[in-house]
């Protein structure tokens, strides 16, 4: 009975020993290299089991296997026995299992892992993380796009795990996160050593349209185009090149965003400090046109000092043209200082003030009464515009075109481009107006004709035409019209047909209008005036004498 108990105990111990010594399939086991032959390592994994592993599985990516007989290694046991009676083991799978355990811990702790980029795939690169392969997106390689990743290949460096899925075997890593973290630490250190107003040296790293980024030793500062020079800078490339070392002043530091504003012009004297002394009002200076806009042109008086010539101050005569038709960029011009506002750093300049006012010159050389000759530049409803010297115009109003014709009729005789002669009648320099007269060159026939004639005068006219509304008459070459109602005091005799062309009749002048060049004539007014004179001289109808008696006595008196 005792013997049986002893056997049972021995079998239990043997079974326990077998369970302990026999490795479990699908696990990582330790083994010892007992031989190396035919490019393989023969490994004893215990319990009289041996397996073979290719030497390349012991080599690091891009390197050679460094393994010797007697070395202890960890391998993954796929099967206890294969078709050749050997254990089926793998060093790669062992490294992968080991790596995944290590990477999962690093991912959970948000710590960095070391790896090496060894291949390029669509959208990025592959990274060896010491047994596990991860994907490195192209956007996560560097803080800026990388054109050539060659120098990074095979180099051992730290990475940050962004995402991992063991079941699917996916790992995504970032090199950029490491660089940004390092960069942030470096920026904080550099910024901590900088103060506003400090002068430092930097290297131009990048140039844009609005400025340049300058590396101050691990941190970039923005040198805006307006802070590069006191003068106007159209593009930073005019004065800077990439890689150039420049001396700059720290203008502003934003501790929260770590943004640094830099300046170069602040290291130079401000030319505006002496502007009011050097450019006194009313003085004339030479300048260079730097920019042309719709409202004027900017003229550089010296480096850093620009003034604006407003379009209204560019030309005496060209009022509605674009400044680009008067001046051109880079042209040297003479300008006059009109106004200075040092607080706003503005100078108002005048271009036309450097030349004499052409209306003043014309007034001096062409006093009133001077005869001129010019070309008709434009015809409007109120007159002619005639081109004169120095690109100025004079105007002949409708009323100054002809003595004998209405202005509306006289202007029809002129065409654009015609050469006309006229007399200067007025020059208004302030309003820039010159009045001309064509008719002033001829004789005023109306004035000559009515010379000595006054309102109330009795004159003799000749009938030239009979019309239904009255008769047309002529007096010294001037036509006038007597209306039907003015042909007689007696309504029965107010008939135009009782007159004939060529008849001579006495009429009374009722009005003389020099503007319309017309005389008002009336037979009726003459008869009424004659009756009034007769009554005053020969009696009144109140005394009993009839009008016929009075007129008869008047006629008899005339005969005596």
Write a short abstract of this structure.
By secondary structure, this protein is α+β, with helices and mostly antiparallel strands.
What does the secondary structure layout of this molecule look like, with pairings?
Blueprint: H1 2-21, E1 27-37, E2 40-46, E3 49-54, E4 72-79, E5 88-90, H2 91-109, E6 113-121, E7 124-128, E8 133-137, E9 156-165, E10 170-174, H3 176-192, E11 199-207, E12 211-215, E13 220-224, E14 245-254, E15 259-263, H4 275-278, E16 284-293, E17 296-302, E18 305-310, E19 332-341, E20 346-350, H5 358-365, E21 371-380, E22 383-387, E23 393-397, H6 407-410, E24 419-428, E25 433-437, H7 445-449, E26 458-467, E27 470-475, E28 478-483, E29 504-513, E30 518-522, H8 523-538, H9 547-559
Parallel strand pairs: 13-15, 18-20, 23-25
Antiparallel strand pairs: 1-2, 1-4, 2-3, 4-5, 6-7, 6-9, 7-8, 9-10, 11-12, 11-14, 12-13, 14-15, 16-17, 16-19, 17-18, 19-20, 21-22, 21-24, 22-23, 24-25, 26-27, 26-29, 27-28, 29-30
Helix pairs in contact: 8-9
Describe the protein in words:
19% of the residues lie in helices and 38% in strands. By secondary structure, it is an alpha+beta fold. The protein folds into six domains: 24-109, Nucleic acid-binding proteins (OB fold (Dihydrolipoamide Acetyltransferase, E2P)), CATH 2.40.50; 110-180, Nucleic acid-binding proteins (OB fold (Dihydrolipoamide Acetyltransferase, E2P)), CATH 2.40.50.140; 194-267, Beta Barrel (OB fold (Dihydrolipoamide Acetyltransferase, E2P)), CATH 2.40.50; 271-350, Nucleic acid-binding proteins (OB fold (Dihydrolipoamide Acetyltransferase, E2P)); 358-437, Beta Barrel (OB fold (Dihydrolipoamide Acetyltransferase, E2P)); 447-538, OB fold (Dihydrolipoamide Acetyltransferase, E2P), CATH 2.40.50. Helix 8 packs across helix 9.
């Amino acid at each position: 009975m005792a013997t049986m108990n002893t056997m049972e105990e021995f079998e239990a111990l043997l079974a326990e020993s077998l369970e302990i010594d026999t490795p479990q399939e699908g696990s990582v086991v330790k083994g010892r290299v007992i031989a190396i032959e035919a490019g393989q390592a023969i490994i004893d994994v215990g319990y009289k089991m041996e397996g073979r592993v290719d030497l390349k599985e012991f080599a690091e990516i891009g390197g050679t296997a460094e393994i010797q007989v007697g070395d202890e290694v960890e391998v993954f046991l796929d099967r206890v026995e294969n078709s050749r009676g050997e254990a089926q083991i793998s060093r790669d799978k062992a490294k992968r299992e080991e790596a995944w355990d290590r990477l999962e811990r690093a991912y959970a702790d948000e710590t960095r892992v070391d790896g090496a980029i060894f291949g390029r795939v669509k959208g990025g690169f592959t990274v060896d993380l010491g047994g596990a392969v991860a994907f490195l997106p192209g956007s996560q390689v560097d803080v800026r796009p990388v054109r050539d990743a060659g120098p990074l290949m095979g180099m051992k460096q730290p990475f940050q795990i962004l995402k991992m899925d063991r079941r699917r075997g996916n790992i995504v890593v970032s090199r950029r996160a490491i660089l940004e973290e390092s960069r942030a630490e470096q920026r904080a250190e550099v910024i901590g050593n900088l103060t506003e107003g400090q002068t430092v040296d930097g290297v131009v790293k990048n140039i844009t349209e609005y400025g340049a980024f300058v590396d101050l030793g691990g941190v970039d500062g923005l040198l805006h185009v307006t802070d590069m020079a006191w003068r106007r800078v159209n593009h930073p490339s005019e004065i800077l090149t990439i890689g150039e070392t420049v001396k700059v002043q720290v203008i502003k530091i934003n501790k929260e965003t770590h943004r640094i504003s830099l300046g170069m012009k602040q290291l130079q004297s401000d030319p505006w400090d002496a502007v009011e002394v050097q450019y006194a009002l009313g003085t004339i200076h030479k300048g260079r046109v730097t920019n042309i806009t719709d409202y004027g042109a900017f003229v550089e008086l010296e480096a850093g000092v620009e003034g604006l010539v407003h379009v209204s101050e560019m030309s005496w005569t060209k009022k509605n043209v674009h400044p680009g038709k008067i001046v051109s960029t880079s042209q040297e011009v003479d300008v006059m200082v009109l106004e200075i506002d040092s607080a706003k750093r503005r100078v108002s300049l005048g271009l036309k003030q450097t030349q004499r006012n052409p209306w003043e010159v014309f007034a001096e050389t062409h006093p009133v009464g001077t005869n001129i000759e010019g070309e008709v530049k434009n015809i409007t409803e109120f007159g002619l515009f005639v081109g004169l010297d120095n690109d100025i115009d004079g105007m002949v109003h409708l009323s100054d075109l002809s003595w004998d014709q209405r202005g509306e009729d006289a202007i029809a005789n002129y065409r654009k481009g015609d050469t006309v002669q006229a007399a200067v009648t007025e020059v208004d320099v302030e309003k820039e107006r010159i009045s001309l007269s064509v008719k002033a060159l001829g004789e005023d026939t109306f004035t000559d004709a009515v010379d000595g004639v006054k309102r109330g005068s009795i004159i003799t006219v000749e009938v030239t035409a009979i019309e239904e509304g009255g008769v047309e008459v002529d007096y010294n070459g001037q036509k006038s019209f007597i209306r039907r109602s003015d042909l007689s005091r007696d309504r029965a005799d107010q008939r135009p047909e009782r007159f004939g062309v060529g008849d001579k009749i006495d009429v009374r002048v009722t009005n003389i209008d020099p503007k319309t060049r017309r005389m008002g004539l009336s037979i009726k007014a003459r008869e009424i005036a004659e009756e009034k004179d007769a009554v005053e001289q020969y009696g009144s109808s109140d005394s009993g004498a009839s009008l016929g008696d009075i007129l008869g006595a008047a006629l008899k008196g005339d005969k005596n």
